[in-house]
Amino acid sequence: MSKLHKLAAAALALGMSAPITGGFVAPAMAVEKQVHYEDQQVRPGHSVSVAPATPLPEDAGADFDQSGIPEGWYVSINEDNGELTVSAAPNAKNGDSYTARVKIVDIDGHVEWTEVTFTVSEDGNADSALPPADSDGPQVTYEDATVEPGRSVQVNPQGDTNPDLGYDISQAGIPKGWYVTIAENGILTVSAGGDAKSGDSYTVKIKVVDGDGKLTWTDSTITVK
């Protein structure tokens, strides 16, 4: 169960209402502390991550409205700390932009919406560890998964998989005590540290390359039960 769903369950137990979005935008309610993000610039085919300028309260979780994401862009969020990662399409042009609507929900069911805009620029931020993706790269994705402390979980690739594909992972940011590997057939194995706590998570960035050298980046978030 994700942190947001745990918060919703707790709120309902208190007789509150804590709407969790799919595609629908829940109305905002008054909150004591506003959360905001600084707008960002990103290079075509690259990713940029931004954390809230004001940290999330410990009893709050983050999500985002998945409507309106431009074709070829990828967006993910860390529910625990609100860090948002946006990858611009490789064919995105200077001046193209995407405004992410981020929802913050606290234990009392209070909802706050905030926005952050990502604008494409050749001078924008880029994750230098990640080569740019190709617009016609392999259509492969991974599901998110959960794992117990000190144990492992495997995640299989989904979509247009075939024997000609090659797989690799970015080693950046792997938590201490965690181990992440990927097999030749694309099966991802993640072992959580023995001292990992419930709600800890790590998002694996996975590189998929086809026989023509076309590249796609995808990801899978592994959360500790």
UniProtKB/TrEMBL annotation:
Q: Which InterPro entries does this entry report, sorted A to Z?
A: RibLong (IPR044055)
Record domain Long Rib: where:
32-121, 139-225
Q: Where is this region: Disordered?
A: 43-62
As given in the record, the signal peptide range reads: 1-22
Instruction: Give the keywords, sorted.
Output: Signal
Highest taxon of source? Bacteria
Q: Which Pfam families match?
A: RibLong (PF18957)
Q: What name does UniProt use for this protein?
A: Long Rib domain-containing protein
